[in-house]
Amino acid sequence: MARPRPLLYQVRQVKTPYHGKSWKVTAYIGGKRKQHWFASEREAKTFAGDSNAELHAYGSQLSDLSPSDRADSQRALDILKGHPEVSLAELAKIYVAQAAARSASKPLDQFLAEYERLILRRVESGELKSGSHKAIKETFVKLKTEFGNRILSEISSTDIERWLDDSTGENLRLKSASSNGTCPGGAPGFFFRVL
Questions:
Q1: Domain residue limits at 88
Q2: By the 8 A CB rule, do 23 and 37 touch?
């Protein structure tokens, strides 16, 4: 009959040492065996006692976390106290999704340079008039001034709408060109397709 799996760390001396260490501390944490080897019984018992105290205090699911990771988790939970509907796991998933979107995105200035080459090809093929290219190029200069090299995924449609609605006069020509159809597809449509 098989031995029962210890849920807390147990110390025992083995007949066949492992790398010169004959004291083994074993437990099954989360269904997986964890074992540690020590040269002396005192070291093994100290480790087992400390580990078992952590298991009692934090449970088996947190026993693999370092003290700094546990403290960091506690700080994050303290920050979230006013938002009981949000969990650390949800926040981690959101962060990973945002990081993936950022890494798949590109800076606005790089995108505009690529898109300007595409527009130029369309002008050369006769699909667009050269005046359209000039208007788009002027718009791109203004966009670079406003958004610089920000990552596309970080520029929201609200940012674009705010920029277009700017009443300082800088973007009024763009708004009128966009609304009377001289800007192909209109700048808002262009951005909302991109973003």
A1: 65-103
A2: yes
Q: Which of 103, 124, 156 is the last residue of a domain?
A: 103
- Tally of structural domains, the chain: 3
Residue 80, both tokens = 């979230």
- Band of pLDDT at residue 184, cut at 50, 70 and 90: very low
| Contact by Cβ (8 Å): 144, 112 | yes
In angstroms, the CA 135 to CA 31 distance is 65
Question: How many alpha carbons lie under 13 Å from residue 26 in its C-beta half-sphere?
Answer: 13
Which of 22-31, 36-45, 124-133, 158-167 tops mean pLDDT? 36-45
- In the block, tokens 């994050």 appear at 76
On whether both 168 and 178 belong to a single domain, the answer is yes
166-187 burial, b if ≥16 CB within 10 A, otherwise e? Answer: eeeeebeebbebbeeeebbebb
